[in-house]
Amino acid sequence: MPDLETVLVAAPTFVVAYTVFAMVGFGTTLISAPIVAQVVPLPTLIPAQSLLDLAASAGNGLRLGSKVAKAEVLRLLPAMMLGLIAGAYLLIIVPLAALMVLLGAFVVLYALRGMLARPRRRPLRPGWAWWYGFAGGILSAMFGAGAWLYAIYLTRRIDDPTAIRASQTSLIALSAVVRVVLFAVAGKYSDWQVVGLSLVLLPAMVLGVFIGNRIAHKLDRTRFLRALYLVLLGTGGALLVRGVISA
């Protein structure tokens, strides 16, 4: 079971992370991993968070299932599966310090992209599903953070915001199922550190989803995302520096 220091760091972070998830449809690992990775190794954190992501996305998916754009989900799914397998393998073999550097750099680049990029509405060709699905699968398995790539693809293929959110939620749920299966096959869930962390942080996940659903329709999403990118820039930078020092 995690010690008190770990709980004091991880629990409030997970409340915030799943509040963000309920509000914008993704972002749990982008919020939590740069902070919680300071006290929990990524090979322990990512499998534990995969279990919680599965529970959270399954709950939201039940409410939005009828709105899923099935054709787009099916286009993304094969490449996503291949990416998940590749990412799970890399998570097991890549050294911890390198993982910290990669995750820190990834979060910083994601934040900068969000702050600087202009919205693009030009439709994508269906063939791009292979790139977005594969890259998203790798990032999902390694960092639990591929959903933003699915969101980019879906927003440039679908006009209905509800359909976008429903389709993204279904992809997150499917990704979480595959990640959990892969980590189970790899023996990650025979480690009681992983299982204990998941159980201890389950109430934080539930509370975060509850809060996020309550305030989702009351907050200006554009301003919220701008603040979110600033937070990600700071936390990702801190993790990147720590990874470089530890290498």
From TrEMBL:
Region forming the signal peptide: none
Domain of life: Bacteria
Compartments reported by the entry: Cell membrane
InterPro entries xrefs: TM_pro_TauE-like, TSUP
Transmembrane segments: 6-26, 76-109, 129-154, 192-212, 224-245
Principal location: membrane
Record keywords, A-Z: Cell membrane, Membrane, Transmembrane, Transmembrane helix, Transport
Membrane topology: Multi-pass membrane protein
Family: Belongs to the 4-toluene sulfonate uptake permease (TSUP) (TC 2.A.102) family.
This protein's name: Probable membrane transporter protein
Origin species: Bordetella petrii
